[in-house]
Amino acid sequence: MMTLSNPSRWPRSTTRASRPRRPSWCGSRCGMAGLETRPEAVAEERAAMTKDPTKGTEGASEGAVSHLYGNRARLKPRALSLLGATTWAADLSPCLDRPYLVKGWLDQSALSVLYGPSNSGKSFLALDLAHHVAKGRSWGNRRVNKGRVLYIAAEGGGGFANRVAALDEPEFFVLSIPVTLTGPDSAAAPLTEVLQHLAAVGGAGFDMIVIDTMARVMGGRDENAAPDIADLVRNLDLIRRVTGAHVMLVHHTGKDTGRGARGHSSLRAAIDTEIELSRDDLGQITAEVTKQRDGPTGYRFCYQLRQVELGLDQDGDPVTTCLVDPAVPAEAGRAGVSEAARKALSLLNRLIEERGEAHRKPQYPSHAGVSFDLWRDACMTEGELSSSENRDTRKRAFNRCREELETAREIVVRDDLVWVVQ
After folding, report:
1. Which one, out of 174, 355, 394, 405, has a CA that is 20 to 30 A from the CA of 249?
2. Taking the complete model, does pTM exceed 0.85, yes or no?
3. Maximum Cα–Cα distance for the chain, whole Å?
4. What angle in degrees, to the nearest 10, is found between the helix axes of 372-382 and 391-407?
5. Domain count of the fold of the chain
6. For 260-387, where are the alpha helices, taking DSSP H only?
7. Which domain holds residue 46?
């Protein structure tokens, strides 16, 4: 039996080359990378061994042939799959590119929870995220990889349809009936069948599934009970495993908002990403990444809910809903930045969310920006930077705001384009 020395006892001066190396018999993987580990391949290998187990191994020692082929071929398929996934540690390479939907916020194929107290705009933000992923638009000045989205509006109702109607040309699917994702009546398996069918018809699989809300898919089970949460997570894992999609749960806080999301703590342990919402007295809402399994936390996105009118009801009264409007956090502005400048920056954020594009030139920032003229005109017409009706006065007010923001390094202006500094 080969015994490796304890790495913790190696002298500090020991070089990588002089440390114990991978055993010569294990290839680049203990499971022999490049050799098939599928059951049918193993069966073929065993059949070949009955004919001539040393064929093609001329020059190898009898022990090596036995170890590489004889012992390996006797493994059962499940053990063989474990062997194939066993890697020599020194051969591991760093993962520099994490596949993401929203960079720094949502990874591909992950499980996330977006939660907050009542009236914190949870569903509006989840819908906004889904819309941006489906359109492939930057969100919160973060890069977004375009993907196919299913939004499960388990709470249903006409209110959700109104929220979708306010979006500009939405490009995602909506399932607007309650589904159960726990217990013997779980709809997880039928749901994956529907998703696979839609993928086959549409020629593309799903990348994001939003479940709004978690309480409505529990099927009467207890969200404070570990076995019921474990059952829910198993079904969500099934959906992720079959579809490869990111699954987001929209959830609530308990009575004590300081204790995090409602329910058993095992839910937080199971998820990859947690996003917490909080609302201040002025109506500004902050979304913050409070857990990220393999990345940094603390990213924030501040927004307000902007009311929009959809039309009139049968009595002639306006029917309204809300859209997410990116805002500038009160503490974000550096010293000396005026309230007018913050309004101009908030409007720029909104324009980038709605119409921003990345411009691939070495001298430009890599994230999305917009036309400087577009920003200036919007500020002069709706930015409320000045109470004067005089165009020249408004223009001077805008120029002061621009100068403040550039001095504070909140924005970058190059050629005829403008960006928010990330």
Report:
1. 355
2. no
3. 95
4. 120
5. 3
6. 266-270, 339-355, 372-382
7. 19-91
